[in-house]
Amino acid sequence: MIMHRIVVHTKDKRSRINRNIYGNFSEHLGRCIYNGVYVGEDSDIPNINGMRTDVVEALRYIRLPVLRWPGGCFADEYHWKDGIGPKASRKKMVNTHWGGVVEDNSFGTHEFLELCRQIGCAPYINGNLGSGTVQEMSEWMEYMTFDGISPMASLRAQNGHPAPWRVQYFGVGNENWGCGGNMRPSYYADLYRRYQTYVRNYGENRVFRIACGPNADDYNWTETVMQIAGAYMDGLSLHYYTVPGDWNQKGSATEFDEETYYRTLKRASYMEELVTKHAQIMDRYDPAHKVGLVVDEWGTWYDVEPGTNPGFLYQQNTMRDAMVAALTLNIFNAHSDRVVMANIAQLANVLQSVILTEGKKMVRTPTYYVFDLFKQHQDAVLLGTFAETTEIGVQAEKLPNLSVSASEDASGNVHITVANLSATEACATEISLIGRVFQTASGRVLAGKMDDYNDFDTPEAVSIRPLTDVLLENGVVRCTLPACSVAEITVC
Ligand code: AHR
Prior knowledge:
With about 500 residues, this protein is α/β, with parallel strands linked by helices. It has helices at about 55-60, 110-120, 135-145, 150-160, 185-195, 220-230, 260-270, 270-285, 320-335, 365-375, and strands spanning about 5-15, 25, 45-50, 50, 65-70, 95, 100-105, 120-125, 170, 210, 235-240, 290-300, 340-345, 355-360, 360-365, 380-385, 390-395, 395-400, 400-410, 415-420, 425-435, 440-445, 465, 470-475, 475-480, 485-490. Helices cover about 25% and strands about 30% of the residues. The chain is globular, with a radius of gyration of 22 Å. The site of alpha-L-arabinofuranose has 10 residues, from loops.
């Protein structure tokens, strides 16, 4: 077994890791909202006000900080007034984007904000710029947040919620370079300036306005939108999905060989370059870092599970996905001076989900457990780290075997998250803690074969267990990281 050294510099305190990096995304797509989180008040699946109690409890446990809704591509076709008022009279429509199914609008603004209340997370609403009007967007914010006498505030009261909600995060359009209107960046940037003007701050509510950012490496989009509209935004989004094949044949979620495993991780690690280069452009227009990078869609995208509706994007989730999540979250931590929010796609039953459901059954995926292992980084201070690594992989798909980040929480405890990306080799690790003396060390680990997953009949095939051989001696923590594993080591 090879030995690797990691150094954590406890005096090298860097940016605060915004808790919102651990956010999620829920779209009216497939079984994400309906069945995934919302089953309706009359369901025999245990629920509070229609929200599945098992799912809410699981999300509270990982301290989900922020949830984006209603899309995605759905957002630029969504007219929020269709989703308020008595459910029986809500408009039924076709979800043209996702499977052509009937959308009965039984989950709307009130339901989403109730879901966020139950989870204890901040709502992030994505407005419709592609096919909606300025007035519609403006009135949505008035409806949700205005505390006084106004047409939208009285409509809200009439619909059973006299008190305003707090809605801090608001997206002005989604993927407007694609499904959100096929716009060119300068056209979008002008529209953004116009629409955001009417997304008002009411009372105490202060809106963090998020502009539609680039698709992956479209640096021209970032350049143009920052130049024209950078002064009018608080956040700029970035979307990047990890696809092991090509868009026509993305590959199976569960059946893959080692080469595909490493290719997937290599493609996921491209996030490092994307964030670095987009941040460099942002630095030129916003040297003071007033505008945050919001990676509000990321994760793996495979072929749908055989036999499921292709428009529903339902895929299983293996240890490979856990490794992608760990690698990506460590990248976001490292760039937390610019990355202020990220939302993995998606919450339940769609793409790289943390939760899968089938009727009454619920499964926590390997990706869920990574969010559990990383939760202590939320709002902690990033510490400088260095890791000795070995190149692993096959043929062209090579990458370093370890991915690491470390942070200090408000009580002074240090949390180190390490992924051993090797599919086959365990790694003996020495973590040198420079600058402070610690008394205790402990660890938790998620490990398995690269294609292990949790299913409805074996919901705990992969889950977190204690890392038993952790030893702290003379400022050095020694432990063995199993092959294909993600660990959290805590020193106090
Ligand atoms: O997450 C699925 C889809 O991917 C979203 O609706 C869209 O924004 C992106 O293309």
